[in-house]
Design a protein that fits this description.
Rossmann fold, seven-stranded mixed sheet, two-stranded antiparallel ribbon
């Protein structure tokens, strides 16, 4: 039964990549390979596994969600990551975004403020042998100063403004992707940091749960 399920999910994953991700213009071969490899259905509850490859976010508990597959791919492509990069993720959530990044980069540092999600994701990373993912239970808006600077930073929740600690922990030549806006809708923003300063590009509208913390929203 497990082998049959594996074949079925592999087919669904391939269809997801073809119809939802490639069809919308994601072209980075590393990103496409990563989303083909990560078993997305394992990052949601058993009751929702049949919906895991659908073109929509899903609830994961604690008023949080696993992002739509296309959004994960779009944000990953926008980061322009490579195999030697060290990436900071703010908002571990289900762990799916971190796993996609871990397929590509040297190391992922991921921070989660909700303990049940942090604990569940850590167990799943271990079960799937993602040994290049380092986890932390903390306020993600403060970043992870001791491990910085980072080649890339990804924020998987909507912020009212760009948290200054994250910008300060971005390396020269580093990229950050973050949703910024009000509590109902945001603009997906890409930042590039060089010796001349911070350069901003808006990538389009999006909708995420709130980024809660000292440099984000104060409550859900």
């Amino acid at each position: 039964m497990e082998e049959k399920d594996s074949v079925i999910y592999t087919r669904r994953r391939e269809e997801m990549v073809r119809k939802q991700i490639e069809a919308r213009g994601i072209t980075d071969a590393k990103v496409l390979a990563a989303v083909r490899n990560v078993p997305r259905h394992l990052f949601v509850s058993e009751a929702l596994q049949d919906q895991a490859y659908g073109d929509f976010p899903l609830p994961i508990g604690e008023q949080q969600t696993i992002s739509q597959p296309y959004m994960v791919a779009e944000m990953t492509q926008a980061l322009q990551v490579s195999e030697d990069d060290r990436v900071l993720e703010i908002g571990t959530g289900s762990g799916y975004q971190a796993a996609v990044l871990a397929e590509i980069v040297f190391r992922v540092y991921t921070v989660e403020r909700i303990y049940t999600l942090f604990s569940r994701a850590r167990k799943l990373f271990d079960a799937l042998s993602y040994h290049n993912i380092v986890t932390r239970y903390s306020d993600g808006t403060l970043g992870w100063k001791d491990e910085g600077p980072f080649d890339a930073i990804i924020v998987t929740a909507g912020a009212p403004d760009i948290p200054y600690p994250l910008v300060s922990q971005l390396a020269q030549g580093g990229r950050m992707v973050i949703p910024v806006g009000d509590q109902h809708s945001q603009e997906l923003v890409k930042l590039y940091k060089d010796e001349k300063g911070i350069h901003r590009t808006d990538l389009g509208g999006c909708r995420f749960v709130k980024l809660v913390g000292e440099h984000g929203w104060k409550s859900l």
